[in-house]
Amino acid sequence: MKSKITSSVHHQGGSGHELQNNKLLLVSNKILILLAFFPLLFGCDAGSINYNNPNIPNYPVNLQINISLPQYSNLQFASNHIVDYSQGARGIVVFNTGSGFTAFDLACPNQAFSGCSSPLTVNGIEAKCQCNTTENAYSLFTGQSAGQNYPLKPYRVQMSGSNLIITN
To answer: Rounded to two decimals, what is the model's pTM?
Structure first.
C-alpha cells in the first residue's frame, strides 16, 4: 500500500512539472514561428537596382542553347560567353559565371534606344556601350556598372540537361 501512495504522490508532482514543460514548449514554439517569419518580413529589400528600364523595349525572348554543340561548347567553362543577335532588343550575351549562367540584352541600358543602334561590345567579363565612350563597362557577372542609373537588362536562364533556356 505504501508504494501506491508514494507512486501517486510522485505522479502528481510530475504533472506540475509536465505542465510547466508544456508551457515552455508552447512559448518556445511561438518564438520559433516568429523567428521563421522574421526574415520574410524584413529580408525583402527593394534594393537600389532599377530593372524597370525605359530605354530598352520589351521584346519576347525564348532562346535555347545546347552547350554540348561545338559552337556553344565554350559555355562549359567559367568566364566564357556567347552572343546571339537573333533575339532581344540588340541581341543577347550568355555568360558562364562559374556557379551558373547569366544572360543580358546587348542594348545600351543608359542610352535612348532610338539614339544608339549599336549593340554592346563584349570583351572578356565586361560589356561596353559603343555610343558613349565615357560610360563605364558593365560586369557580365552582375550586369551592373559603377555610377550608372540602369544595369544591363537581365533575362532568366534555366538549365535543363545540357540545354540553357533563356526567357523573359
So the answer is: 0.71
Which one, of 135, 74, 139, 62, lies nearest residue 102 by Cα?
139
Tens place of pLDDT for every residue, the chain, 168 residues?
454 544 444 445 556 667 676 777 777 676 767 566 555 555 554 445 667 889 999 999 999 999 999 999 999 999 999 999 999 999 999 999 999 999 999 999 999 999 999 999 999 999 999 887 777 899 999 999 998 999 999 999 999 999 999 999
Answer whether 74's CB lies under 8 Å from 67's CB.
Answer: no
Residues 115, 15 contacting (CB under 8 angstroms): no
Q: Which amino acid is at 154?
A: P
Can you say whether the dihedral through the CA atoms of 4, 6, 9, 15 is positive or negative?
A: negative
| Residue located via cell numbers 545546347 | 66
* CA separation, residue 70 to residues 45, 65, 110, 129, 160 (Å): 41, 11, 34, 29, 18
What the block records as the C-alpha cell of 122 is: 563584349
